[in-house]
Amino acid sequence: MVPSDEEHNGSNRELGYGRSSSPIARLPPEILQGIFEMCCQTNGLHWKDWNTPALVLSLVSVLWRDIALSTSSLWSSLTIDLASCSGRRYHALSCITQLFLDRSKKALLTLHLSLGIRQEPEREELSILDALVQASCRWYDVTLRIQHQSQIGHPVFRPIQGNLPQLQRLAFLEHSWAHNPGFTTDLFSDCPSLSTLVIKPRSVITPAFSIPWQQIKTLRLLRAWPTYALPFVLLCPNIDYLELKEVGMDDGVADEVSLDYSGARIYCRAKALSLYPNIADEVDCIFRHATFPNLSHLQITYGDKFNWDDWNTQFISRCLVNSSCTILSLSFTSVPVRDEDMVQLLRLMPELRTLELEEPPKCNWILTESFLAELHVDHDHLTPTPFLPKLADLKLVVNVNGFDQMAFSKAVASRCLKDVGVDCIQTVEVRFMGDDDGVAGEICTYNLRFLKDTAVRVFVSSLSSPTHRPHC
Fold it and tell me: Where is the composition biased (Basic and acidic residues) (predicted)?
């Protein structure tokens, strides 16, 4: 058992523990407190392992214990997995849970709770759950891994209804067995501060839940077929940020029609959209079914789990045209899109100010001679519709092999001259993949030396050889 405060302080005095002469002990308490807070962002509570960061820090010395006990935020992050416990071990877990709740005092709580595969909480678990529920007025960031809808319907959770004034982020991440799409609860109906939802569709949560959907500003959906995921987007009319990770159709699925989204077209007011796909349809899915009139920031990051040979930009292009949105920043990471398709897509973004492109490992799909030629501004023969006339920040991650450094430096130079209808570039950042000896970075720095006395910020660096499999 953890010794009481009096026992620990007494033992320290008996052993002569005082202010150590070591450098770390001479740090001001405010600095130590900041270090402790970084160490205690997660406290995994377990019945047999009491080596959680906050507890360890409180047992080192009198000084550290005083700081730990006076800093309630060190004890405010709790990760509890009830599935790892059984029998008399529940008592130990209950004690450490109560200890953290007591020492966190009035601090807002970050809670990660896993209930395991049982359909209802075990009798021994109820004391732990009851202690957490009694502190629900301090719940701030809650992640629930609950596999049965009957678990969240248990009476032990009933007191949280109407007692979640500080809850800002709520996540449901575990796949639910025997998922009932009509299951509902009003436990989270009164959450005045709730603004972020993280959902793995087909978890215990359903669109029938009584949640203040109109309050949600950030919505993240993880790993699901469109028919389960996209209805949640429809429920949140006021989101500013939408993130989809692996939401889409797989061509190899037999029952493809029933798993695709067939509801009303989604009118999404999100200003920022982030996609983390593994296959092409996980990019196209949202653009086939939604309109984004307010979209200004778009990010697509390829997960690199499966083969993805090529991507046709027809759906995203059609969506941008129909949405009449103004894209200000675009970020593509390892997306296998051809240079000519990328050029056509970027022509739909005349107000674009920030462009971030990271090529797939081993070869350059986008940053070819043809693309760099488009990036070059011909001031002698300026067209009425120049390519990316508002571009201010250009950030690239390229493969050393096949990248035309001379064409790139000329393109950058052409954008340092202010002309009618074309803004001057402000930031150029280039990172070279596979530049183990740093030669490519040195060449690039030399080629861009003419920017030294300008207002343009230049950053050039080299990365070691990529370890990912090649895409081409």
Answer: 1-11
Q: How confident is the model at residue 129 (pLDDT cuts 50, 70, 90)?
A: very high
DSSP characters over 271-317? SEEEEE-SSTHHHHHHHHHEE-TT--EEEEE---SS-------HHHH
pLDDT digits (tens, 9 = 90+) for 90-120: 888 888 899 889 999 999 999 999 987 778 8
How does pLDDT run across 145-157, given as a tens digit for each residue? 998 898 999 999 9
**Burial profile 259-270: b = 16 or more Cβ within 10 angstroms, e = fewer:** bbbeeeebebeb
DSSP labels for 120-143?
S--GGGHHHHHHHHHTGGGEEEEE
Q: Residue 224 has which token pair?
A: 């699901």
Q: For residue range 196-255, list pLDDT tens digits in order.
A: 999 998 889 999 999 999 999 999 999 999 999 999 999 999 999 999 999 987 655 545
Tokens representing residue 269 in the block: 């007011």
Cα–Cα distance between 342 and 437 in angstroms, integer?
Answer: 31
Residue 45 phi/psi, 5-degree rounding, is -90, 130
Q: How far apart are CA 82 and CA 208, in angstroms?
A: 27
The residues, any chain, with a CB within 8 Å of residue 115's CB and separated by 6 or more, are 82, 83, 121, 125, 144, 145, 146, 147, 148, 151
Burial degree of 111 (CB within 10 A; 0-12, 13-18, 19+): buried
Tokens 């109407």 correspond to 162
SS (H, E, C) 402-438: CCCHHHHHHHHHHCCCCECCECCCCEEEEEEECCCCC
Helices of type H across 104-220: 126-134, 149-152
